[in-house]
């Protein structure tokens, strides 16, 4: 019998140790690997982190509190956290060509909150303190403090509308960002489904926002960040880009020049687990003038940094700096375009007519379905997607009229353009065979069809084993 490889040994041993304390948790972890291996994952924001990334998270770095920044902590004994964070920062700066990186945010929402407070502090707090001729907010009188707080709460943000693909954290009311800022949206040209930069400029001129936010979670096209920076400069706004979805395409140099946000934005936020393929988490990149404020992210906005996750971020950034990551990033886009082309050839209507990035947005009204009905019918057939609003969506954000799909995960698994065409055929079968039911959530789909598609999906995936180096026995 041959010896087990390092990854199998590591994960088996870890599960044995967990199982000895709470077997149900060990079972759930093992089952998650099984389920992920079996499912055709088309969720645009998910991926499969490497064993090295996963293993870097499961250790005693988790035990340490380290509020503050490298070399300047509110706790003693942070020398190893300092080492970990410094390595993650070094890799992030090199990977993205950024002058400054902050790798503590626990998620994309956290990264955006750090960025918003840094912008507010930079633009609002400092002038107020200077006016009062004081250095620290604690030195302000109650009246000066009240004036400053009122000024903080009275600022404007211009972000992409939710139905055009913007994110909740870009100033929308159900999120704290919508309570922090008076928000106005820019959208897409209804004829092309693409950002209307002239309209965006007009809105910015009229609204005079403090912050303009670029980036998206459901927009299938490249964004011209050079033009957006020009608009921001013209109206005196700070330009922030949330590149959570496409950070892997920036890291892999698929998005360069006008389409790389890092040289154009004052501040860039990201998650680390989507197309970048790292651990769940966030990061902020910024120009040097914002770094002092960004560094106050913890403890001003964030809880203590998760040193174990920063370790995994460092590993993921190091992986993304390897030459083969560029090929991976390009294959993500090639696959998304092949999927878009395969769907279009079979009669689907896609928002904006196609894709330049990792995601495709299908208008399922074409099939007489809501997003909710289509999502469940696809899931019943072994295809995991998520429903998403489309521009001017008549069904709102809950039921929606769209299905968002993305290729980062299946590309990590090794599927290519030929397999994307097969997936387009599976989706076409389900979407054309599903009939709307009595409510926006109900539908009819012959179980035999769902079963057949599900089997075909499993057969397809069997050729591309997930985590082939991990054998749990
Ligand atoms: N939940 C993420 C997504 O699916 O796009 C964004 O926060």
Description:
The chain has 473 residues and is of the alpha/beta class. It folds into 2 domains: 260 residues, Type I PLP-dependent aspartate aminotransferase-like (Major domain) (Aspartate Aminotransferase, domain 2, 3-Layer(aba) Sandwich); 138 residues, Aspartate Aminotransferase, domain 1 (Alpha-Beta Complex). Helices cover 47% and strands 13% of the residues. The protein has 19 helices and 16 strands. The strands form 5 sheets. The chain has a 7-stranded mixed β-sheet with strand order 4-10-9-8-7-5-6, with helices on both faces. A 3-stranded antiparallel β-sheet has the order 11-14-13. Strand 2 and strand 3 form a beta hairpin. Helix 3 runs antiparallel to helix 13. It is globular. The protein starts with 5 loop residues before the first helix and ends in an 11-residue tail after the last helix. The site of D-serine has 4 residues, from loops.
